[in-house]
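Support reply, case 0932

Customer input (verbatim):
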Amino acid sequence: MTRADLSKTPREVAAMFDGVARGYDRTNAVLSVGNAALWRIATVRAVDPQPGERILDIAAGTGTSSVALAKSGAEVIALDFSQGMVDEGRRRNPGLQFVQGDAEKLPFGDAEFDAVTISFGLRNVQHPQVALAEMHRVLKPGGRVVICEFSRPPLGVLRAGYHAYLRHVMPLIAGAASSNPEAYRYLFESIRDWPDQTVLSQWLRAARFTRVGYRNLSWGVVALHRGRKPAGASAQ
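Our regenerated output:
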């Protein structure tokens, strides 16, 4: 399997990421023109991890974002659906706790985490609204969710330029930088077809998160979404 279609069946997505695990972080740094590190810094600041907190990092890949979160002294669980990503993460970061698992069926009990975060992974989940409900379930009352995801630049001229970059430039870069450029074609298509900032905010509210908001990064190429599980909320 080299390329998944946008139906995003779990088996196809897992196989795709298994195939690019070893070079994934390097390729992302190249494709984002160095912005991946800046987006990660913004995400960690939004999560605001505190010593002693328990944080779940979903779609953690090889654990790059998890390592940044753990520097605060928080206990971070790095979860990914791809066994290849988990294996590579354990090899690179033996001090982190990695779990292979499905964002739609999180292998944790109710109200276990102070914060849940996912970066550039929600659009690869087959049923993202189910994953949001699972995030709500495993959060403690008062817990916070932070989602960093590709989005749509609000200005038409920027949006047109960005789509041209996705369509014409990024495939060339991926062909040179990645061991599996066909897998990145799926990623480009998933970015193009992912809903905008307003729709994701609506999904968060539908999952019973409050204090929902977002801010654009890189002129809206990426959006950083936040929400809270109400302090008086039940586990479910």
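We compared this against your earlier run and they match. Two observations from our side: The chain has nine helices and seven strands. Residues 1-6 have pLDDT under 50 and may be disordered. Please reopen the case if you see a mismatch on your end.
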